[in-house]
Description:
By secondary structure, the protein is an alpha+beta fold. It has helices at 3-20, 31-44, 46-55, and strands spanning 59-69, 72-84, 87-92, 108-111, 115-122, 125-128. It is elongated.
Amino acid sequence: MSPLRLLGIILLGLALEACDRRPPAVPGPTREQQIKEGMARARLGTEGFILILQSGKASDCQVLLQAEDHGKTELIWLRDLTYMDGKFSGIPTNAASIVGNVKDGERIEVRKEDICDWMYWEGDNIYGNFTWVDVEP
């Protein structure tokens, strides 16, 4: 075998090996970072959400409250919403499991600037819910 042919085979082998290598994985944002980014996006659209809520065109409008009690925090969705004087009023969608100051079925008020997220349905489409994070299996 000629030295030129041998060099060609070696270079081809190195090129194929290099093609098989993948760059190292770059870590994405953490779950907490994704939730914080979602909260920021939701706050930008709060005024539009209020208009939708007050128009009555959407169904099942909800806001997300960050409830705090004795240093513990829990995110709780509120349903059956009303909005008046800069405050949402709603009922928790489920019983709190971490904080003790949110009671199932009890109407809660939260200031507009204190909500973490919002969502509503129009037909089969859901809008908002920016803090939802897909958990990989």
